[in-house]
Structure formats: structure tokens, C-alpha cells
Amino acid sequence: MDIYLPIANLSVNALVIIGLGGLVGLLSGMFGVGGGFLTTPLLIFYGIPPTVAAASSATQVMGASVSSVVGHVGRKTIDFQMGGVMVVGGVIGAGIGAVIFRVLERIGQIDTVIGILYVVMLGSIGMLMARESIHALIMARRGERLEARKRRHHPLVSALPLRWRFYASGLYISPFAPLLLGIFSGIITMLMGIGGGFVLVPAMIYILGMSTQLVIGTSLFQILFVTMVTTMVHATTTHAVDLVLAFLLLIGSVIGAQIGGRISMKARPEYLRVALAFIVLIVAIRMALGLGWRPDEIYTVTLQ
């Protein structure tokens, strides 16, 4: 079942794209993370141009985030004040990212930069996740409990001026800390087509000192609005958003997320964290090979 993607300018098998979206949704439902950081690499592996893959993934993440945010609003697990500051930072970051994107596109290096960013970020985060999850698994097998981490913001946050009270999170910190995190999230969302949750969630816990009960909902709240802005910026400046591709991905991810959610209720969390860490590392290694592997034929001429 082939379908033509007007922006990517190629024909793809619609069932394969839906399957890729389903795989990402399955992982998202199983591990409780956004699937954007896997969607773009999988699309690139399939042959979608990196610029279109990144822009369309952001659109898919935006659509998939709506239902999650609605659920967190009902459970009152969102710090709207903190999320609002991060949204402002995300919008600023998306503007900066758009400028960087256009400059790199103009000099012909955007595809290479997207690949390098994925290798660096997925590789480093995957190794950290693997180390912590394997340690937790070993402790669990020994019957020992990990010591609960005291909730405290990073010392660098204390050095920032102008403190605000974030009542929902119980924090008294400078708004510049979440603002800077939002800016960073906006830049990587624009360049990589990810929601940024796999970066924001640990940063909000270990840097801002937020409680885990509020982190996921607040992160998704920020991701929803930043990916919305990112999609609009891509659509009006880079013209790289392929709505047909994003729609097919969204169909698969919605179905996959439901299945993944049921699996996560039966599987042990220690094994899920280890599995996610190694999946991230495998994707990073595959991206690295794609950057350094020289093809047998550099140029290929195809007759239509």
C-alpha cells in the first residue's frame, strides 16, 4: 500500500510508516517517555530526509501530547506556573533553533548536524540510563532498596538572581532556571523534532528539584505548546512538515501506546528501564554508523 509524501517527495508503504509509529507508541506506553527521540532516527533509517523527519516528528509529538496533558490536568499533576515559564523559554528557543536550522540548511550541513546531535544526546543519555538501571536491577536482586534521593535543586540554581515561589512544586528558585531549560528544549525540538521529555524530565528532577509527581505532567504541558510553535515555525519557514507522514505516524502511535500501556502494567519496572536504555544505545550506535559508513556507491541515478 504505497502512498506519496508530498513534502518528502517520495512514495512509502503506508503500513510501514504506521508500523513505525506503532513501535514508537508501544515504547512510549511501556516506558512512560515521549517517542519523539526515536521517531526521527527510525524515519531516517527508512529513507525519509532528515529535515522532513525532524519537522514531521514534532507534529506527531504535538498530536500525541494532547490526550496526555488532558489526563494530567484532571489529576492535577501540572505546575502551571513552572510550565508557563518553560513554555516562554521554549518559544524563545524555537525561534533561535529556527535561525540555526536555516543557516545549517543554507550551508548544506543540517542533515549531518541532526545526525551528530542524535548520536551525542542518545549515546550519553543511554549510557547514564543503562548505568542507573543496571545498578537498580542488581540492588533489587540482592533484596536491597535504593536510598530515596532528597529533593533539592542544583547549587547552580541558587546562584541565579530573582527568586519566585512556585507553590505547586513547593520551590523557591529563580525563574531563569526553568526559562533556560525551556530555551534549550525549544532549540533541540526545532533541530531534532523531539519533544525533549527525555532531557527535561531528569533535568527538572535533578536540577530544579521538582517532585516526580509533577515532573511528567509539567514536562508534557511544556512539550505540547513548544511542539505546536515548532510545527508552525517549520511550516512557515523551512516548509519541511509533511502532514501525510505525521498523520500516518499518529495513527500508529495512538494504537501502540495503548498496547504498551497494558504491557507496562505487567512487566517489572527494573527490566523496562534496562530495555529502554539499551534501545536508546542501539539507535545511537546505528546513527553513528550511518554518519561514518561510506556507501559502495556515493551517487545513484534512478530512472523513473
From TrEMBL:
One of its GO terms (cellular component) is plasma membrane. Belongs to the 4-toluene sulfonate uptake permease (TSUP) (TC 2.A.102) family. It is found in: Cell membrane; Membrane. Coiled coil: none annotated. InterPro entries: TM_pro_TauE-like (IPR002781), TSUP/Inactive_protease-like (IPR051598). It is a multi-pass membrane protein. It comes from Sphingobium nicotianae. Pfam families: TauE. This is Probable membrane transporter protein. The chain crosses the membrane at residues 12-38, 44-70, 82-101, 113-134, 179-207, 214-234, 240-259, 271-293.
